[in-house]
Amino acid sequence: DTAVSQTPKYLVTQMGNDKSIKCEQNLGHDTMYWYKQDSKKFLKIMFSYNNKELIINETVPNRFSPKSPDKAHLNLHINSLELGDSAVYFCASSQEGVATNEKLFFGSGTQLSVL
Amino acid sequence: AQSVAQPEDQVNVAEGNPLTVKCTYSVSGNPYLFWYVQYPNRGLQFLLKYITGDNLVKGSYGFEAEFNKSQTSFHLKKPSALVSDSALYFCAVRDSGSARQLTFGSGTQLTVLP
């Protein structure tokens, strides 16, 4: 009964390819996120969606495009992959609207390696 | 603007000894503060949070953290470390008056030696 699940766990691909990472949460949360963790373990938010609408879009190349078909899913599509895209990508979710419930639930990550 | 600093990349402690992982923050308004833990090849897991109220916050697995407004700190503590506590720990902050976005620190690798 994984709360936040993302697939694939590992993704190895060539430069220039297009790839997608899928994320699903079964917690009934309103908000979902994509985070990027680099090789030094630094964690940075990329996108945030609330009820299928984009609410945060950090300075991320437009090669990265999030897609939220419904509030339980937030997929990440990456075009024209570059070497610098190699990282671990984490999906997360939280319940909006409750000020004290700022708890994020993370997926187990997708290790992307661009060769 | 909001930021958080974890001054130690690595903390080593002997099993059974108390541990402290340091965190300082900077926000314009009142802070919401969090600690998360990341085990190898896993996503981050919530440990505890400070929103308001008592400065000493108790969380999962026997961890606690003390909010110190004058020192703008939120150090993570545990009275007696376990080998299984070895992991990467992240402090995070959000300005209560800002848009809903957490800023994470750079992480501190805790190693508990048997």
In brief, what are we looking at here?
Chain A has strands at 4-7, 10-13, 19-25, 31-37, 43-50, 53-57, 64-70, 73-78, 87-94, 105-106, 110-114. In chain A, strands 2, 4, 5, 6, 9, 10 and 11 form a seven-stranded mixed β-sheet that branches. In chain A, strands 1-3-8-7 form a four-stranded antiparallel β-sheet, with no helix packed on it.
Task: Please tell me about this protein's structure.
The complex is a heterodimer of chains A (about 120) and B (about 110). Chain A has no helices and 11 strands. Chain A has strands at about 5, 10-15, 20-25, 30-35, 45-50, 55, 65-70, 75-80, 85-95, 105, 110-115. The radius of gyration of chain A is 14 Å and the shape is globular. Chain B is mainly beta. Chain B has strands spanning about 5, 10-15, 20, 25, 30-40, 45-50, 55-60, 65-70, 75-80, 85-95, 105, 110-114. In chain B, a hairpin with a 7-residue loop joins strand 10 and strand 11. Chain B is globular, with a radius of gyration of 13 Å. Classes of the chains: A mainly beta (about 120), B mainly beta (about 110).
The greatest interface here is:
A-B, 24 and 22 residues
Report the sheet-strand fraction of chain B. over 45%
Helix content of chain B: under 10%
Characterize the main sheet of chain A: 7 strands, mixed
